Amino acid sequence: MITYLTELDTKGYIDEPIDPTLDLVEEINKLKKEKNAVLLAHYYQEPEIQDIADYIGDSLGLSQQAAKTQADVIVFAGVHFMAETAKILSPQKKVLLPDLKAGCSLSDSCPPHLFAKFKEQYPDHIAITYVNCTAELKALSDIVCTSSNAVQIVDSLPPDQKIIFGPDKNLGDYVRRKTGRDLVLWNGACMVHELFSQERIQHLRRQFPHAKFIAHPECEKELLDAADYIGSTSGLLKYTQESDSDTFIVATESGIIHQMEKASPGKTFIPAPPNNACACNDCPYMKLNTLEKVYNCMKFDLPEVDLPAGIIARAKRPIERMLEISERLGL
Ligand code: 13P
Ligand code: SF4
């Protein structure tokens, strides 16, 4: 146990050697049954993890699952703030994250003590925070939102309600344009969604003139202005299924393309290229999770994500408000 804990401190995950003859998919499925565990995976996970998940979804869908699961253990194949959200919604359950270093640049762009100071400047505003933030930040918020429901949540508030929105300035600006409301924005961003190259995308569009260009609202305004459709990962997936088009240039993390290809096998999906030599944009945090780490974390029940009771108590209400509004609006 002591070795494991030291490993967790230095590496962030259990690095126990795994018998190479083991069929990891079979072993993970066995562990799920033995421990009454549910494996939740975000669309940005490696395809092999998505394929053994009990539920694959966007941040809203994953929170809804975490709130209602009957399992004793939630294995979260995603990033740290997602596992924290699951813990806040189901504090009596054990929440495991295969790699504790699976963080988020957007969450890191908003340290809670600085946000608390920022809030003090706007005492007559409420704070809406995008779920991509720490539990401490959620505890400072009035309502949490995801990219699936941010516009509808802002729209559901009285027109004279003043609002601070954080941490994502791109999503905040998008919500501002869609709702016509004057939101005060925190200056944070996701490094993955800010890295797309306009020039390379334009080049691709010239090459595939019939392709639809679709983008996640964490992308910058100039890119969103050029998009045929803007939506959360589940929104983008649904659009590709329902659209008559057969080719799509996809501006979000490339993991989603696995589900797009599964849902529409005859269609072509081209990842929007970033501002470097790579062909697509991967989230370095999301991609820290591997099948081996999922297996070891289920076998050893580590790393576990836990939070102080006070934070859970304060962060729960703004997340529940989001879930209540989403349910009311059928999202
Ligand atoms: P959604 O899951 O809401 O589409 O957000 C994408 C994201 O960046 C998750 O980290
Ligand atoms: Fe965070 Fe961006 Fe990675 Fe999503 S894609 S987890 S917002 S760094």
Quick take:
By secondary structure, this protein is an alpha/beta fold. It has helices spanning 2-10, 24-35, 47-50, 59-68, 80-89, 105-108, 112-120, 135-139, 150-155, 169-179, 198-207, 221-225, 233-242, 256-263, 291-300, 309-328, and strands spanning 37-42, 55-57, 73-77, 94-96, 125-130, 143-145, 162-166, 184-185, 212-215, 229-230, 247-251, 268-271.
Structure description:
With 331 residues, this protein is an alpha/beta fold. It has three domains: 4-102 and 285-300, NadA-like (Rossmann fold, 3-Layer(aba) Sandwich), CATH 3.40.50.10800; 106-189 and 313-329, NadA-like (Rossmann fold); 196-271, Rossmann fold, CATH 3.40.50.10800. It has 16 helices and twelve strands. It has a four-stranded parallel sheet, sandwiched between helices. Strands 6-5-7-8 form a four-stranded parallel sheet. The longest helix has 20 residues, at 309-328. 1,3-dihydroxyacetonephosphate is lined by residues 58-59, 132, 146-148, 190, 218, 232-233.
Features of the shown structure:
331 residues, alpha/beta, Rossmann fold, 3 domains, 4-stranded parallel β-sheet, 16 helices, 12 strands, binds 1,3-dihydroxyacetonephosphate, binds iron/sulfur cluster, cytoplasm, 4Fe-4S, 4 iron, 4 sulfur cluster binding, quinolinate synthetase A activity
How many domains would you count in the coordinates? 3
**Rg over alpha carbons:** 20 Å
Shape: globular
In the CATH hierarchy, what is the architecture of the largest domain at level 2?
3-Layer(aba) Sandwich
Bound ligand species = 1,3-dihydroxyacetonephosphate, iron/sulfur cluster
SSE order, as H and E? HHEHEHEHEHHEHEHEHEHEHEHEHEHH
User: What class would the helix/strand composition place it in?
Assistant: alpha/beta
Enumerate the strands of the largest sheet in spatial order, edge to edge or round the barrel: 2-1-3-4
Total helical segments: 16
Find the CATH topology of the largest domain: Rossmann fold
- Unreliable sequence segments: none
CATH class of the largest domain: Alpha Beta
- Average per-residue pLDDT, rounded, comes to 96
Helix content: 40-55%
Number of strands: 12
Q: What does the largest sheet look like?
A: 4 strands, parallel
How far apart, in Å, are the first and last alpha carbons? 43 Å
Q: CATH homologous superfamily of the largest domain? A: NadA-like
